[in-house]
């Protein structure tokens, strides 16, 4: 588990941080601002623009506090409004001295914690030293639990395949289970064939570490929630090998697994697992090249009995997910969710920052969308477009893992996965990117959680 941030304890010594919007005649400074402080802010060119910072001096040259611009209320380019303050303010404990109307301080506090994340496994990195006193009225333990889930997902994704193969991903799952009293069952190697997980075995059998299916169950009573995360710890593309430019980020191809583990961490820390039956399934493999690698043109028979023609070994994620989803569906969970770094088509459609999700139930989909919008975890619904079903039917087998033509790749992948679910009360599939391509406030370049808070905050409505 990565080292987690903390909130500062309330103290009279905490420095005051004023949140300021632009006004018609300059920044809308708080009424407590002294004439000297107002003059100083004007001299610094402080206008209340989003991300602007103005440190206020004491007469002896110390720091009296700070003004921080949050921009016009209607602007929403910066997802985590206080993250840049966390990264810019000098060392010390900081207290939010005002509460501008319309500002979500819980998300602001979360962004502050997100800004303190650094991946330090291989080298030391300077962590922002400004600590926040949790704003009054904000549930500190909930915010810290959200940060814990995000930190875990980021760390898992950022770790290279040399230290995050299927065995290591299993170890991470076991560590999480040990923290929260969950049980773990793992089926690995040729036992996958013996227990009818042929597609997981086929994809991972050429890897340096044996393929496996990781199965976590958390103690609890209530509706069943099953999370399935793609755990392709490295994806060469198999015999349909990727070019180097496409292979460079493939350590993140287990981002779906990282996200379901991160979500589970948060659910457990909040005590929410007690009110549900939470199951987490992770098919963990390496899609590698060797003499026993699966081949283009092979036909695989899945756990569900559906036959699949392999027309591209680089479309392996839907294969391992198919077997895992079939297992999950056998218990008819109230809600079945898959998360996967699945298609480039999703990135072309919506970019790296807005993952699509697929759901047949309009009310459930609306709950997920609204929860993502309201909690700074945006997602966007795409359809299970049934007229495209014929595109995944090759004729020689029941299903095609990589239909040609280049159209609707995210949708056809989602339709493929849906074929392995019949009994679940609802099925939602998230096609995430799991990576922040360039640094932004609260989102350093590297592994990223996507969809976790949208799911978390939609669950009460979906599972009621």
UniProtKB/TrEMBL annotation:
This is Leucyl aminopeptidase family protein. Belongs to the peptidase M17 family. Keywords: Aminopeptidase, Hydrolase, Manganese, Protease. Residues 312-319 form the Cytosol aminopeptidase domain. InterPro entries: Leucine_aapep/pepB, Macro_dom-like, Peptidase_M17_C, Peptidase_M17_N_1. Pfam families: Peptidase_M17 (PF00883), Peptidase_M17_N_1 (PF21337). One of its GO terms (biological process) is proteolysis. One of its GO terms (molecular function) is manganese ion binding. GO terms for cellular component: cytoplasm. Transmembrane segments: none annotated.
